[in-house]
């Protein structure tokens, strides 16, 4: 698929942004290819986790300004048409998504990295909001995602001061799960993804959905919603296997069903 390479390692699908000459800068074609690749990969029920990374020296350098004309005169409508489907696909993916950040994740690329479930960063990785440098506001979901990951004050610090964030500092403040040597980035990302793929996929994704909903719910409403979803998911094959394995004092063998 143009712009996005697809591969697999057992039950893990691997998606690689493949426009290295531009540090994988976003274009309607690239984001369209990403949305289609997520859909295509996850139609295979044997795929139980995804890894998203970038080819070359960077993860994603943000929006390709040369391609902005393709969005049309109504920029908001263009972004929602061409970019939102990829972000939505990652955020609502039926399997967990690990993002392996190599090199820079800037502007919209920073936003894209946050759209997954967990981030692993190469030691050379860096994160920068960029927007205030060119007198713009953060976009592509940054103002929703970043404060929820690291808190309001730290998010505003990054957005207003436009200071780059090293991989180590990103780990310290809770943006990334792990920092690894560059040569081991994909190995560690696949190890984490395989661990997730071996888990009860439906329950893992339902947990993600509950966390998303909690941002807008009262304590009482979320209390009820958890039990409602629990009542539904406890009938799944994995939940039955999990209970049986607990009683029989053995390791559960989950199938994602």
TrEMBL record:
Task: Name a GO molecular-function annotation.
Answer: catalytic activity
Q: Which InterPro entries match?
A: ClpP/crotonase-like_dom_sf (IPR029045), Enoyl-CoA_hydra/iso (IPR001753), Enoyl-CoA_hydra_C (IPR014748)
Any matching Pfam family: ECH_1
Name the family the entry cites.
Answer: Belongs to the enoyl-CoA hydratase/isomerase family.
Q: Could you tell me what this protein is called?
A: Crotonase
């Amino acid at each position: 698929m143009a712009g996005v390479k697809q591969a697999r390692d057992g039950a893990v699908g691997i998606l690689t942004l493949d426009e290295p000459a531009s540090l994988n800068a976003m274009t309607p074609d690239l984001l369209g290819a990403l949305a289609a690749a997520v859909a295509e990969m996850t139609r295979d029920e044997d795929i139980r986790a995804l890894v998203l990374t970038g080819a070359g020296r960077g993860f994603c350098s943000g929006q390709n300004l040369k391609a902005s004309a393709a969005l049309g005169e109504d920029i908001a409508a263009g972004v929602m048409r061409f970019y939102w489907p990829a972000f939505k696909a990652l955020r609502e993916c039926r399997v967990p998504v690990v993002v392996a950040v190599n090199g820079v994740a800037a502007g919209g690329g920073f936003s894209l990295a946050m759209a997954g479930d967990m981030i692993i960063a190469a030691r050379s990785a860096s994160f920068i909001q960029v927007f205030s440098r060119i007198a713009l506001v953060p976009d592509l979901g940054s103002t929703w995602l970043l404060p929820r990951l690291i808190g309001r004050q730290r998010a505003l610090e990054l957005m207003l001061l436009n200071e780059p964030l090293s991989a180590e500092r990103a780990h310290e403040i809770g943006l990334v799960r792990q920092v690894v040597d560059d040569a081991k980035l994909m190995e560690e990302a696949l190890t984490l993804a395989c661990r997730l793929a071996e888990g009860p996929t439906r329950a893992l994704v339902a947990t993600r959905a509950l966390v998303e909903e909690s941002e807008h719910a009262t304590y009482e409403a979320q209390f009820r919603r958890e039990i409602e979803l629990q009542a539904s998911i406890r009938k799944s094959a994995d939940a039955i296997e999990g209970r049986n394995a607990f009683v029989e004092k053995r390791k559960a063998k989950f199938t994602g069903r």
